[in-house]
Every structure is written in structure tokens, then in C-alpha cells.
Amino acid sequence: MLIRSIVAMFAVLLAFPLVIHAEMYKWIDDTGAVTFKDTPPPASKKKKKVKTYTDADFDPAPTLQPAAKTPPRKTASVASEKQALPKQQFNGTVELYVTSWCGYCKKARAYLNSKGIPYVEYDIEKDAAAERRHKELGGQGVPLIVIGSNKISGFSAQAIDHYLENAK
């Protein structure tokens, strides 16, 4: 009797497969490298070549084949667009929410210092008002970097550069 009930439960589990939904993003960055991530690129609304993949796009039993190596494409129109549009450097206040023990906070601080970017640093463990603002901004970890109306969770030199050049 026990074996029959176990077999019956196993049969029910096999009859109803679990479905997990996820999205993957693919884009070509400024250097021509193809990037796949589960989060959109920092400027997804400005990039035209962002492709979002869902579960329906994936073959349940894919065949693995070696990827073809293609050199990055550089066209004259892309180069001329970059020359035609002058980039404006962010001139507001950069806020850095940190803790004293965080290694990535130290990297973010060192990166901003190396670029000569002025910032205001708040230690969320020593300042209750800074901790409250960190939570209001949706911070769940450190460092939290605020550039204009943009928030960066964690340290990413590429994201910092992007938001400094395209801050809102």
C-alpha cells in the first residue's frame, strides 16, 4: 500500500513538470563584445540591438556547437555618430553609501578618486539618517552609488562611467 502511494505521487509529479520563467538579455557593447546577462544593459532604452530571451526561445534539448569567432564590427557611421554627439560629463553630486568593512566600497571609492570625481560618502552603519535614506532608495547592500536619478547596486566601473556620461 505504501509503495503504491509513493509510485502514485511520483507519477503525479512527472505529469506536471515545473515551469521556471527567466529572461536573458543579449547585446553588443561598445567594444563589439557580445554580452549575455539576466539583467538589461545599463542603457537598454538607448541601445537598439538588445534582444530579450524567454523560456519559449530555448530548445529543451539543445545541440552544442562551437561558436564561430567573428571580429567586432566597426562602421564609419558609428564612429561619426560618436564624434557628432558630444558627451556631457555629470556635474551633480555623486552619493556613495558604504560600510567600513566592505571591499567593493573601497574599490568604488578608489575608482571615483582615480577619476577625480567628487562624491559624498555615507556610512550606513554609523549614520542612522544615511541608513534610512539607503533603504528609501531601495538599497539592499553596499555600495549603493547614486548618480543623478540613477542607482548602481554594487561596484561596476562600466556602470559608473555610463551614468556619469549619460546622467539624468
Automatic annotation (TrEMBL):
The Glutaredoxin domain, residue ranges: 94-149
InterPro entries reported for this sequence: DUF4124, Glutaredoxin, Grx-like_ET
Ranges for region Disordered: 38-78
Domain DUF4124 intervals: 12-63
Signal peptide: none
Source organism, top-level taxon: Bacteria
Xref: Pfam families: DUF4124, Glutaredoxin
Protein name stated in the entry: DUF4124 domain-containing protein
Native source species: Geomonas oryzisoli
Species classification: Bacteria, Pseudomonadati, Thermodesulfobacteriota, Desulfuromonadia, Geobacterales
